[in-house]
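Hi R.,

As promised on Friday, here is the backbone we talked about, encoded as structure tokens. Could you run it through your design pipeline when you get a chance and send me back a sequence?
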């Protein structure tokens, strides 16, 4: 064993929440209660409901002699801080919800594997491994001859099976082996909630990373910022986003979903299904529904993060965050410079102004009246109108930079003059979107042009009609760039 492996395992022991949960003093009670209330199909619960359930469990455990003196709310607060539970705001109500994290699912699956009633070395598992290995070897083979030979061998095997079925001489899976395969399928399904939690954690981590890159990217190019301005969905195009999108598209495909439903009904109608427990049969029936619901929640999370990131950029909030970050770093640098000369406990002849939220008495608080949110006026139904494509395009242009229009404008200017800068394009084609047009041309110039010495003035009109002038670095658009050359040929 290498030293690197030892350090890696030591870091996992000290930092991974699943390992921490398994080493906790009350690990059996935590895993037992969370495994009971977040069983298959239940991914999150309103916080008050979970507190009530856990308080009842804790009272039962105390009656049996277990030392668990605290309330469910206190324990849940500790579990959130430890990374066992995830607290979220429910958009559909005013209550927050609690759900297990990826680490908790990993710990639950580990404990379930220790107490599983079937051996992991089964014929069904070997069949799954061999079929996946065969498919991988076949699909990754670039040679035509061997790939055709493999497909012909599969075709011959299918022909032999068809002949056996037509003659009535074919084997039928017996009850024991069929039950074994059913249990194997359910064991694979138990890993799905943990996979969903892992994907959601990856997407949220990517969202934080992209925001940090936007704040730290002070260069001229601004790759991340430019991609967001162009409308690129960085979260959806990430590895986790593409992987989940492929899974989600397969789940919501009507043909595939109907096939899965038919297969599940066929399995449950077989005689061996009577050997399954009622819980196992229920899990079979709800298998597709649970995956669809969980997939929809993760898809909604991914969509929400993408929209939030785009709004963060287009609303210019990142500029204020950048300014605050620069101020904090400047204060830290000054503190480092002053540290050798002043101690933290030295008296300073400075009068600091206290800022922050004011502290009021309880009597100053106003209670929320739910009746304030009730709509007293009757709801008026309006007839559906015809869709106006021009109006729809105008609404889209209010929130998105029309990059297609800018590409066409640059290509047309290059076709007329042979070369063009940002100012040349704006003189030929005024900015129809004001500042957004100028920003879009800057992005195109950085990506599809070359930096030239000096600066130039560019002009555009604001929505109110006022003329705006800005001095930017001079860029010359590349007339040989395929992005412009193709459009020039098309026109």
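Update: got your reply. Pasting your designed sequence below so it's all in one thread:
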């Amino acid at each position: 064993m290498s030293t690197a492996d030892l350090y890696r395992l030591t870091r996992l022991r000290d930092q991974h929440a699943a390992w921490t949960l398994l080493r906790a003093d009350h690990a059996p009670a935590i895993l037992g209660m969370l495994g009971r209330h977040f069983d298959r199909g239940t991914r999150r619960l309103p916080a008050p409901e979970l507190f009530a359930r856990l308080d009842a469990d804790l009272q039962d455990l105390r009656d049996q002699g277990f030392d668990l003196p605290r309330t469910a709310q206190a324990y849940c607060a500790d579990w959130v801080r430890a990374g066992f539970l995830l607290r979220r705001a429910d958009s559909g109500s005013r209550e927050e919800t609690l759900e297990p994290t990826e680490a908790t699912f990993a710990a639950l699956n580990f404990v379930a594997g220790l107490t599983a009633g079937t051996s992991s070395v089964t014929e069904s598992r070997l069949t799954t491994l061999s079929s996946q290995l065969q498919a991988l070897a076949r699909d990754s083979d670039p040679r035509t001859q061997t790939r055709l030979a493999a497909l012909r061998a599969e075709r011959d095997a299918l022909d032999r099976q068809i002949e056996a079925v037509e003659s009535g001489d074919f084997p039928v899976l017996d009850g024991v082996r069929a039950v074994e395969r059913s249990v194997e399928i359910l064991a694979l399904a138990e890993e799905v909630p943990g996979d969903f939690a892992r994907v959601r954690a990856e997407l949220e981590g990517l969202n934080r990373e992209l925001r940090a890159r936007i704040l730290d990217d002070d260069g001229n190019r601004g790759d991340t910022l430019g991609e967001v301005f162009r409308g690129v969905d960085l979260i959806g195009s990430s590895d986790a986003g593409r992987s989940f999108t492929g899974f989600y598209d397969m789940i919501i495909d009507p043909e595939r979903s109907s096939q899965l439903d038919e297969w599940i009904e066929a399995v449950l109608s077989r005689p061996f299904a009577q050997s399954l427990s009622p819980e196992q049969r229920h899990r079979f029936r709800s298998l597709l529904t649970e995956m669809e619901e969980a997939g929809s929640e993760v898809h909604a999370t991914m969509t929400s993060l993408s929209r939030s990131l785009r709004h963060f950029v287009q609303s210019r909030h990142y500029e204020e965050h950048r300014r605050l970050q620069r101020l904090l770093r400047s204060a830290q640098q000054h503190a480092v410079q002053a540290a050798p000369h002043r101690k933290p406990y030295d008296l300073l002849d400075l009068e600091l102004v206290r800022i922050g939220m004011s502290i009021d008495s309880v009597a100053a608080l106003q209670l929320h009246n739910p009746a304030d949110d009730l709509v007293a006026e009757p709801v008026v139904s309006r007839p559906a109108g015809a869709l106006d494509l021009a109006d729809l395009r105008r609404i889209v242009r209010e929130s998105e930079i029309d990059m297609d229009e800018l590409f066409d404008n640059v290509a047309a200017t290059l076709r007329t003059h042979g070369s063009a800068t940002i100012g040349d394009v704006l003189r030929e084609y005024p900015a129809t979107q004001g500042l957004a047009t100028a920003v879009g041309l800057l992005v195109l110039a950085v990506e599809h042009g070359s930096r030239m010495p000096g600066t130039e003035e560019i002009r555009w009109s604001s929505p109110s009609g006022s003329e705006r002038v800005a001095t930017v670095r001079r860029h010359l658009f590349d007339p040989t760039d395929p992005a412009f050359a193709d459009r020039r040929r098309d026109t």
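One thing I noticed while checking it: The first strand starts at residue 45 and ends at 46.

Thanks again,
M.
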